[in-house]
Every structure is written in C-alpha cells, then in structure tokens.
DNA sequence: GTGATGTCAAGAGCAGTGCTCTCGATTCGG
DNA sequence: CCGAATCGAGAGCACTGCTCTTGACATCAC
C-alpha cells in the first residue's frame, strides 16, 4: 500500500494523508457542517484550489473521512471482542457495545457523520460498505459462535416473508444460524446504535443521567433479546 | 392564538406563518443543509435582510421547524394510539411504532432534523422539550395502562443505580409503574427510533429489503421486551 | 543532455451563503 | 396629528465550494 514508486507519488500520498488528517481534526472540533476546504488549505499553507488536485470535491473528502471512521469503530470493536473471554458470549456482546459507545463519546462528530443524518445531500457511496461492515461482522461472529456452542436461548419463529433477507444477511456475514436468530441479532444491533445515538444527539437530556449504568443495563436486555444468557 | 389586535400584528403573524411554510417545503426537498434564508426571501419576493425582522437567525427558523416537526410526529402518534383498541396494548404499541415509521418515511428530511445529528453547531433549545415529549407520553401511557390492567409480563430487576433516573422519568411522564418496567420501556423506545433511523439513513441498504415486514417483527420483539404480550 | 509531457500551486473570479447596518417609507398609539 | 415604532430595501462584509488559466517544476523517453 505504501512504497509509491516515484518521488512524486510518494509526496502525493503524503499530502493526501496530511489533508485528511487536518480535515479530521477540523471535523472533530467544528463538526461536519463546519468542515471547510479553504480552512484546510489555509492550515496547510496552500491555496484552496490546490486541494482539488487531491480531492475532486468536498464530498469526496468527506467520504474518505467516513471510511476512516467506519474503520476506526470497526477496529475498536474488534479489539474489544478479542480482549473478552471467547466463551463468555454475553460478556463479549457487552464489551463490543461499550466499545461502540466509548468511541462515539470520544468522537461525537465523526459518529454523527457515520450514523447521523446523511449531510452531503443524500449520497450513499458504495465504497464505504466494506468498512461499514466491520462491526456487524464482529457482532455476527459472537452470535454465530454462541449458537454453535449451544449457548443461545431458544426464540420464537421469524416471519417467512423475511426469509430472503435473512438468507442474504447469513451469507454476507458468514453466519450459520437460523432466521429467528438473525432477526433478533439485527434488532439488538439497531438497538445498540439507537441507544448510542439517543445519548449523543441529546434525546437523553433531562431523562437519563446515569448514562453508563443505563447503557450497560439496556445492552444486557438487548443481549438477552438476542438469546445471549447473562 | 389568532386575532392579533392590530393590523400590523396580524400581517406579522401571517408572514411568520408563510416563512415557516416555505422553509418547511425547502427543507422537505433540499434537506436541512440546503435551507437558505435568501432562497426563502427570494420565493417570498422579499429581500433577505427583511427575514431577520421575523427570525433572528437561520438557527431560530430551524428551531421553529423542529418544534413543528415534533408536534407533527406527536400528533400522528396520538392519532394512531386513539384509533387502536384501548385494551389491546401490544396492538397500540405496534400502531404507534408504525405511525412513527410512516411519518418518517413521508418526511425524511424533517425526521433527520429531529432525530439525526444536530446540525446547526450543537445547540439544544429548551423550548423544543415539551413538543419532543408528546410521543413518549403516548408510549408511557400505553405501558402504564397495560401495567395497571395487569397485562404486563413480569420482568427482571432494574439496577438500583438507575432509581433516581427512573423516578424522574416516572414523574415527568405521569407513570405509575416500577423501575424495571420503565427501563424496559426506554429500551424499546430507543430501539424504535434506532430502527427507523437505520432504515432512513441507509444502514439497511443491501441488508433488509422487506422493510415493513421486518419493522413489524422487530417492533413486536421490542414490545415483548417491554412486557407487552402479543 | 535535451525536449516533450504531465503534474503542480497559485491566483482571479463566479455564484452563492449568513448576517449587519443604514435609510427612507409606512403604520400605530397617544 | 405627530412622535415613535416597525418595516422593506439595499449595500456591504466575510465567508463558502468550485472553475479556469497561467506559469513553474519534475519526470520520462529519446
């Protein structure tokens, strides 16, 4: 990935890296709406038009930051899962949830860029998909291994209308579990990010003060819903 | 509320109404980021500075739209709840969930303004709170009445650390239910909006196609988590 | 080595934004 | 009826994303 051949390519890659780094810092302080190409250029001692040699538009720069963000939360999730006891499936689920929440609290603007409203005028760049799947892959692995170990509680049936969707999820995430397990996992997945978003976007203001304790308990409830015994 | 005394006050109220209406239409087509005071003024045949006689800033106009949005979804929820059989608590829960989802699908940009990332540079105007509570009041009433009717399944305990928060919620929403019921209701509440946000913000792309069927099933699972028997 | 080729930063400029201030005209209240 | 309050218009400031042209530089083939 590194080792650009010519010197030109090397300095070009370095400049792209520097631009994204400054942009990420601005994103962290000002938010996505305050990210300005001109400000990035100013901080680099360049003129604004020069940035366009490296990013065709502001949205393209934003997309690069989105991909980096998905990878960052994916890495945090993978690390949290690896540090938990492999056979303690409920513990792994809770550790992963906590990792998502902690990353979100540390990078609120980046989280908003990933899981908030899609700002830049509705676009869903396809190249963000693989990075966006890293956390779901981890969650799927936890549930899959718990199922293989016979550690999942039995659950009610899944509507036949969802069979096609469940089959797609099963193959995309390399799961070997029945439909009713997948659909409950998806519910817990949405509940995780819904709870984090509520906390970050202010819906818990004047409602929940003991954020960490509430989060742990809610995630435990969702884990049980997914079949994970505490 | 109407019947401004002087003619000036009447035309002023009418102009404020017209501004918000045009702004809401622009919001619906362009999104929050594309809402432009100058464009609103242009469409009204006014000059941009004249708008500032009625709204001190773009953010203030946005806040007015936010309050209107909360009231709109609150009304939709109240109507859905009223149209369901009073004693069918699970049915009322599902009807309310569907009302939220349908409103969100019909007004995606407004929904993003309410439940997405807080765009206008982090502010939480206090005057949005009462409007934002209308839907949660309905949800609380369903669970409260179900509990009073003895229709809730028993649930595990709630951590004592959350007793203070639960007491605050209980008094704010006029609920007469124990802590463990409240915390499960909150979990279902966050799950509802998390699911709607996931669908609207693109996280279900290439994952779930049978959106309505999946939504109904997920909401039923969350309703059961809250104690509502199907 | 030298000349052609491609890449680069810089600058000017366009169209748009939120917002402020001033200046006449209109309207209201006493 | 007259002073005071309110209003719309206009100019202007400091920004933004983005385009186009220009001249300097490095790279590569010969």
Write the layout of secondary structure elements.
Two copies of one chain form a homodimer.
Chain A: H1 7-30, H2 37-44, H3 48-51, H4 58-83, H5 89-106, H6 108-115, H7 129-132, H8 134-148, H9 163-172, H10 179-201, H11 211-225
Helix pairs in contact in A: 1-2, 4-5, 4-6, 4-8, 5-6, 5-8, 5-10, 5-11, 8-10, 10-11
The first copy, chain A, binds a DNA duplex (30 and 30 nucleotides) through α1, α2 and α3.
Protein name (chains A, B): TetR/AcrR family transcriptional regulator
Pfam families (chains A, B): TetR_C_33, TetR_N
Domain HTH tetR-type (chains A, B): 13-73
What report would you give on this structure?
The structure is a homodimer of 230-residue chains. The mean pLDDT of chain A is 93. Chain A has helices spanning 7-30, 37-44, 48-51, 58-83, 89-106, 108-115, 129-132, 134-148, 163-172, 179-201, 211-225. Chain A contains 11 helices and no strands. Helices cover 67% and strands 0% of the residues of chain A. In chain A, helix 1 (7-30) crosses helix 2, helix 5 (89-106) packs antiparallel against helix 8 and helix 10 packs antiparallel against helix 11. Chain A has 230 residues and is an all-alpha fold. The N and C termini of chain A lie far apart (43 Å). The longest helix of chain A has 26 residues, at 58-83. The interface between A and B is large, with 55 and 55 residues. Chain A binds a DNA duplex (30 and 30 nucleotides) through helix 1, helix 2 and helix 3.
């Amino acid at each position: 990935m590194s080792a650009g051949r010519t010197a030109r390519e090397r300095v070009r890659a370095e400049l792209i890296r520097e631009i994204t780094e400054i942009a990420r810092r601005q994103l962290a302080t000002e938010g996505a709406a305050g990210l300005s190409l001109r400000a990035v250029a100013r901080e680099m001692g360049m003129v604004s038009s020069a940035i366009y040699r490296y990013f065709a538009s502001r949205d393209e720069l934003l997309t690069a930051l989105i991909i980096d963000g998905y990878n960052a939360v994916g890495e945090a999730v993978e690390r949290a899962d690896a540090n938990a006891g492999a056979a303690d499936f409920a513990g792994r689920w809770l550790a992963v949830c906590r990792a998502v929440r902690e990353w979100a609290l540390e990078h609120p603007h980046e989280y908003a860029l990933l899981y908030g409203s899609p700002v830049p005028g509705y676009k869903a760049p396809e190249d963000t998909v693989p990075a966006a799947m890293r956390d779901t892959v981890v969650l799927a692995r936890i549930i899959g291994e718990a199922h293989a170990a016979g550690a999942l509680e039995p659950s009610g049936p899944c509507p036949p209308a969802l069979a096609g969707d469940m089959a797609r999820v099963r193959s995309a995430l390399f799961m070997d579990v029945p439909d009713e397990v997948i659909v409950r996992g998806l519910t817990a997945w949405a509940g995780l990010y819904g709870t984090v978003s509520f906390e970050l976007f202010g819906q818990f203001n004047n409602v929940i003060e003991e954020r960490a304790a509430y989060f742990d308990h809610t995630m435990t409830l969702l884990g049980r819903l997914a079949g994970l015994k505490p």
